[in-house]
Design a protein that fits this description.
heterodimer; A: alpha+beta; Mth169, Chain: A; 3-stranded antiparallel β-sheet; B: Rossmann fold; 9-stranded mixed β-sheet; two-stranded antiparallel ribbon; 5 helices
């Protein structure tokens, strides 16, 4: 089982990297860009067989280490 | 007075810190990150600057889970003092021993230069030798020094006199190098025994090297 974890800055926390990428896209004349957020993806391979248990374990990993919940949100996708 | 200085793989300011405190008359010991206890005769624990564990994941994140940090927590819970400088400040926020977080600098550059700081509150040991609004010159050297805290947290910091230092210019006017909320350069906990700041007082110990303003800060903890 594989967990794909996407971590990004919370709404309301200024994403300076996203802003810099947005400026760069503007300078390349991509005119439809409204907003850019830059995040981090962590892919964890797990030996567990049970999806609910895997999700619970990965949630704990995010709370304990993978995300800093003071400034970041995380989303977990489990793939069998 | 004995100062324990925490050393992670990637710490690079532990010997400067040792020099600084020995200059002030303290005895020092380096505390390796895998140690699980801190000797009772250590009065002050300093988490020195650098790039702990390569700062992979986030600055200070992996270090915050290391064995020595449990011992540092116990040391602080016993009412003894802890100081985190630069990467040490990041480690202290990652362990939630101090509130807030340190984000990437607003303009994304690594900043390494002398910067002026204004004393926000001297009602704590660290800044007890200063008057409020005193301006000091201390080097900064960081990529992730952009202090963030939400509005409620910021109010609480001010209400409890936890804001230590603001970045400013030589005349004491606020000047923000990295995007920190309210130009905050350093804070302490409510109990005022845990201190964290991005600037490096241990690099400001000799006039011949640009500034000796760090002496008065570190002396406050002696």
């Amino acid at each position: 089982m594989t967990a794909i974890i996407n971590i990004s800055l919370k709404n309301g926390v200024l994403d300076s990297q996203g802003k810099a990428v947005h400026h760069a896209l503007d300078s390349l004349h991509f005119e439809n860009v409204e907003d850019v957020r830059v995040g981090r993806q962590v892919v964890v391979k797990l030996s567990s067989k049970d999806e609910a248990a895997a999700r619970e374990e990965v949630t704990q990993m995010c709370e304990d280490l993978l995300a800093n919940t003071v400034i970041e949100d995380y989303e977990i996708e489990i793939i069998a | 007075m004995k100062v324990g200085i925490v050393q992670f793989p990637g710490t690079n300011c532990e010997y400067d810190t040792q020099y600084a405190f020995e200059k002030l008359g303290a005895t020092t010991a380096i505390l390796w990150h895998q140690e699980t206890t801190i000797s009772d005769d250590v009065d002050l624990v300093v988490i020195a600057g650098g790039f702990s564990y390569g700062d992979y994941l986030r600055s200070g994140a992996i270090a915050s889970k290391s064995p020595i940090m449990k011992a540092v927590k116990a040391h602080a819970e016993a009412g003894k003092k802890v100081l985190g400088i630069c990467n040490g400040f990041q480690v202290l926020t990652e362990t939630h021993m101090l509130p807030g977080a340190l984000k990437r600098n607003e303009h994304l550059h690594f900043i390494s230069k002398h910067h002026n700081l204004k004393v926000a509150n001297n009602s704590n040991d660290f800044l007890s030798k200063f008057d409020n609004s005193d301006v000091v010159n201390i080097p900064i050297a960081h990529h992730d020094g952009n202090f963030f805290i939400d509005e409620a947290g910021l109010k609480e910091l001010y209400a409890n006199d936890q804001v230590l230092l603001h970045y400013c210019d030589k005349d004491g006017e606020i000047s923000n190098p990295n995007g920190s909320v309210d130009s905050i350069a350093g804070i302490c906990n409510k109990e005022k025994n845990i201190f964290g700041l991005m600037p490096h007082p241990e690099r400001a110990m000799e006039d011949v090297l640009g500034s000796s303003d760090g002496i008065k800060m570190l002396e406050g903890l002696m």
